[in-house]
Design a protein that fits this description.
single chain, six-stranded mixed beta sheet, three-stranded antiparallel beta sheet, about 55% helix, about 5% strand, globular, disordered N terminus
Length: about 700
């Protein structure tokens, strides 16, 4: 494994631990719990005291502030700026209440009252101010245990403050790492013991000798997820070059041993462990133990296996596959529910390699089974370049790498791998089925269906090709044929939860049968409580029915299962937008864009939220990005027209509205109605946006856009 790791990168080691006399390390630690105008918190003072003790042991010069009011925090930051100037490492730790508003984060001193929006500027500490005072240090570490929900109750809600904290990107801020107790837009627990779950994990792992800072936060994340039953997932944004160790390996280790990329091995183990805990099955934990029998999580893995085997009846079917949403539906227009099948588990009997299958390829298979996709792809690529493969084993390796690339949404590269395998092994239905999955994601539905047809002909009792063909048919609007395929798949395998999920989408999208759709999603979830897409689909149904609380509950459940599930953030953000919870909506759309920077829907929806908040410059920027991604998006042009008007750009507004109507004629009637209501148009509301309508639009824009 280390040979492969050395191929990935030339590692620069910034070893600042274990040599305190040669490195200047300063820290400001703040613990606020005794709030005057909101509920107090039990743990922040404990968190700050324990963190101070740990950091001093690690060689930091620490300033500690407990239950600090606004004046004390400002004075503390002024002093910290002087200390951070020229420091090798500056670390800021905060435990207490925090809020976000308009995409900005604010830390709350104990005397915060927030009687008005203007007071937000003077009564709180803006997160940007903290980063500014640390600018003089070479490395800046910010640890925020500050995502408690609704700290000021009605006062906070009346100001439009959002849920949790907003994401902070470190792009362009080289040498900076910011760690949140939970994902942006979510909330963190204060904890029932001495410390919060996040601080408890920091105390356990921050001083781990020889660990790169990224691996440290991998350990922190894993511990917090276990402690909170995956309800809380720490989130890190970093721009650290090379390796950064806060505590070096033991002095007796040789220099060569100290330079070994031990922490990256730890990161690989964490990838295996994260996937095992995400699947939550005995098979996944056994796979982890097979790779890491003496790993740091091995005792926990054995306990989980014992618990699962004790709780799961022997005759109860288990579905170990995690259904991953395809990207094809992600930017579909709003209402369509998603179908789609997961990539099957890695072990496919018809494509088993020979005993001579190289070690690198076997490592790739193990990584693939545990979901460590980027690791698996590297292993297979190394194996294929090695010259050790021949005959059928080379085809197996190409197929294996193709499955990884399909999971990673690298569809063109996946097709390059699958094509030669399909040409040589046309008798194996799984090869055809997988190539069909790629064709469907690329929108080549006829080719996908042709491959599914061949797979069914070769193996007519396999439920999965019927399910996959049904998805391709549903994508083309052939709902009756799709439902017939789902019926056949379920008849062959009544436990195939994903088929019920897809059938529910077809009943809603094609027939408008809301009751049947709900029943199908409920059935899918009962068969596989970890089927994330079923929660997303049911959440959309609740949203369409106006049951916003139920919708949020389903989206939250999907995010509990996978905190980086972009479709769940997208759906929940849309609900928040409809509820006029604009900051919460913006935080969710921020997460979608972080996970998928090409999500036009996220940019359009975030633009709507900004426009509703009166932030029209930001709205125009996001509408423009959406148009760049989808040039024929009539709605984005149409909505950008309003924000352009609010920015006193009448000519741009006219152009945007005309383009929005040309691309989507359904926009014409509401625009005519608006112009009539404003007294600029007297013609028919007929959707025919002719000369009279255009003249009214121009007159309105010239007189109404400030």
């Amino acid at each position: 494994m280390q040979g492969w790791l050395l191929l990935l990168a030339t590692v620069f080691l910034l070893a600042i631990g274990g040599a305190a006399e040669a490195a200047k390390r300063v820290a400001l630690v703040v613990g606020n719990g005794a709030y005057e105008h909101t509920a107090s918190l039990a743990n922040p003072v404990n968190d700050a005291n324990d963190m101070t003790e740990l950091l001093e042991e690690m060689g930091f010069s620490v300033t500690r502030l407990l239950d600090a009011d606004e004046k004390a925090m400002q004075q503390g930051l002024i002093a910290f700026a002087r200390e951070a100037e020229g420091a090798d490492v500056a670390l800021f730790f905060y435990a207490g209440h925090g809020v976000q508003m308009g995409g900005e984060n604010y830390l709350l001193p104990t005397d915060t009252e927030l009687s008005s929006k203007a007071a937000l500027r003077f009564e709180t500490i803006k997160m940007d101010e903290v980063l500014e005072v640390m600018a003089g240090a070479e490395v800046r570490l910010v640890l925020l245990d500050a995502c408690r929900d609704d700290p000021l109750g009605a006062a906070e809600r009346s100001l439009g403050a959002g849920r949790g904290l907003a994401p902070v990107e470190t792009a362009g801020a080289s040498g900076t790492l910011i760690a949140f107790a939970t994902a942006p837009g979510n909330v963190a627990a204060d904890g029932v013991g001495r410390n919060s779950p996040f601080t408890e994990a920091l105390l356990a792992h921050l001083a781990t000798p020889g660990e790169d800072i990224r691996a440290v936060f991998g350990l922190v994340r894993a511990q917090v997820e276990r402690a909170t039953d995956r309800r809380q997932t720490p989130w890190v944004s970093e721009a650290i070059s090379g390796r950064l160790m806060l505590v070096t390996a033991p002095a007796e280790a040789s220099a060569a041993e100290s330079a070994e990329p031990q922490s990256f091995d730890a990161a690989i183990e964490l990838a295996f462990w994260d996937r095992a805990t995400a699947l939550g099955t005995s098979a996944a934990y056994r796979a982890y133990l097979a790779e890491f029998p003496d790993g740091r999580f091995a005792p926990l893995a054995r306990l989980e296996i014992e618990r699962l085997e004790r709780e799961t009846p022997q005759d109860s079917p288990q579905n170990d596959a995690t259904d991953i949403a395809s990207s094809a539906e992600q930017d579909a227009a709003g209402e369509a529910l998603e179908g789609g099948a997961s990539v099957p588990p890695a072990s496919i009997a018809a494509l088993e390699p020979s005993d001579a299958y190289p070690r690198a390829c076997r490592e790739g298979r193990e990584s693939l089974e545990l979901g460590a996709d980027f690791v698996a792809e590297e292993w297979f690529s190394i194996c294929l370049r090695s010259g050790e493969l021949s005959g059928r084993d080379r085809l197996v390796a190409l197929f294996d790498r193709g499955r990884v690339r399909l999971e990673m949404r690298k569809y063109d590269q996946a097709l390059e791998d699958f094509d030669p395998v399909a040409s040589a092994l046309m008798e194996i239905p799984e090869v055809l089925r997988h190539r069909g999955l790629v064709y469907r994601e690329k929108g080549l539905f006829d080719l996908a269906i042709a491959d599914y047809d061949r797979a069914i002909g070769l193996d007519p009792v396999n439920a999965k090709p019927y399910h996959n063909r049904g998805d391709a048919l549903q994508d083309q609007g052939e709902y009756d044929r799709a439902i017939a395929d789902y019926d056949k798949a379920i008849a062959l395998d009544p436990t195939l939860a994903a088929a019920y999920n897809s059938r529910g989408a077809a009943y809603h999208n094609g027939k408008g049968d809301v009751a049947r759709a709900f029943a199908e999603f409920d059935k899918a979830i009962s068969l596989d409580p970890k089927l994330m897409k079923a929660y997303v689909n049911r959440g959309r149904m609740h949203r369409l029915e106006g049951r916003y609380d139920e919708a949020i509950e389903d989206y939250d459940r999907a995010l509990d299962l996978h905190s980086a599930y972009d479709l769940a953030y997208l759906g929940r953000g849309d609900v928040f937008l409809r509820m006029r919870r604009y900051d919460d909506a913006i935080a969710d759309f921020d997460n979608v864009i972080r996970l998928d920077p090409k999500s036009a829907s996220a940019f359009t929806n975030r633009a709507q939220a900004y426009a509703n908040k009166g932030l029209h410059k930001r709205a125009v920027e996001d509408f423009s990005k959406a148009i760049e991604l989808v040039p024929d998006d009539g709605d984005a042009y149409y909505q950008r027209g309003w924000s352009s008007c609010r920015l006193a750009r009448p000519n741009q507004a006219i152009s945007d509205y005309e383009k929005g109507v040309a691309l989507k004629t359904a926009n014409a009637k509401p625009l005519q109605e608006y112009l009539r209501n404003q007294g600029f148009y007297q013609g028919a509301i007929d959707g025919a946006f002719g000369p009279a309508s255009r003249a009214a639009l121009r007159t309105w824009a010239k007189t109404s856009c400030p």
